[in-house]
Amino acid sequence: MSRSIAERDWKVFREVREAALARFCEKILVEAEGEIKRPGRSPHERYRSLFQHLQKRDDDIARAFDNFRRSTALMQMGLMYSMGLFTADELSRLSPETRDALEVYASISKG
Questions:
Q1: Any alpha helices (H) in the chain, and if so which ranges?
Q2: Which pTM value belongs to this model?
Q3: If the chain, 111 residues long, is cut into consecutive pieces of 10 residues, what is the mean pLDDT of each piece?
């Protein structure tokens, strides 16, 4: 599914992308802390669980944030939206058409 993004929305995305990445990394770090402190597991089990968790989240970061291009912006924004990485204020800055497209991409990514 390929669709161009309006210039106005592209500018908003360029502005909020780093904040969304920071939010996601913070979330990952909190999750990692939970894996590390999980009771009833050996240090090796906690390490393995943490390692697997970080591998999965690294894949998520790659899908949503790597290859930053205008041609992939809607798909990436849809992934970020499905992960809850945009604030209400950031979403309100986008056009209704782009917000609708984010809903579609998010539903596909949850597929």
A1: 7-36, 43-65, 73-82, 88-92, 96-110
A2: 0.86
A3: 81 96 97 94 96 97 94 92 95 95 82 59
